[in-house]
Amino acid sequence: MKIIEYEDKYLEDVKDLLVELEEYIVSIDKDNLDQLHPEYRDEMAILDLEEVKNNHGKCYVALDNHKAVGLIMGCIFPYDEYDYLDYKCPKIGEITELIVSKNVRGEGIGNMLMNKMEEYFKSLGCEYILVDVFAYNENAIKFYDRHGYHTRMYTNIKKIGD
Hints:
By secondary structure, the protein is an alpha+beta fold. The chain is 38% helix and 20% strand. Helix 1 crosses helix 2 (40-54). The longest helix is centred in the first third of the chain and has 18 residues, at 11-28. The termini are far apart. The mean pLDDT is 95.
């Protein structure tokens, strides 16, 4: 297994990985709010990679026999003027995507990808790393817990009407 920086020749693999993740998220969404839009496969990877490019980010892929079987994307987003009013605003890297194909889970690929992104963020002077995790994704929550991450914020939702 090899971890490399993203190259355009892996775009179709990245699209497949993003669809695999979204299908999983849709399957565990107890609120039935997530969807796999017909344009998701063609558009999401482009949007994610553009976000990485525009926000001091990186995308790394895990290769197995020249095929991307995992990926991680991360960015360093700027603060806005409101943030400075009530927050110390340390330099923070944010993991925006982490996907390991179900066919190769349990082989340490997620660990390798996390280590690579953490090294990148450290090299840029980040003090913290932030990751949003879908509340129903218990496997991801356990994974991040094992890597020393902890919950800082909660988002609550309530359906009204009907």
